[in-house]
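Reply to dn_fold:

You asked what the input looked like. This is it:
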Amino acid sequence: MHTELPLPDFPGPDAAPAHAAPESTEVPDFLPADFRAPSRQDVSGFMMRWDLPLVIDGEVHQCHCGAYRNWIVFNMRDDSVWLRCEAGHEAKESRLDTAWYNRNSGPVDHFHPTLDEGLRHLGH
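and this is what came back:
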């Protein structure tokens, strides 16, 4: 607290503000639609590479063809997780969920219009 007098002249609590803003000011969106990333509901799903052996519930997951590494992991719009081996076999993995996918995936770096383009981008 200042010990100097006189104290500054502040308006009291009953005083009206000096300039009132208009009540119905519409603020535009932060980014134009062309610059926004698609939302989760705008895409069919997300995919990532998983090159190491995939350990689920303490066991190394293995495809029926014998593959146990170099997976493509899909997280679909319905929150299901699918695995695809290098041979192209796909299976739903009920022990994994969207929370697991989000913890283990990095940021989205590309959006692909087709599944084949996405798989090519990931090296499959």
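Helices lie at 98-104, 115-121.
Hope that clears it up.
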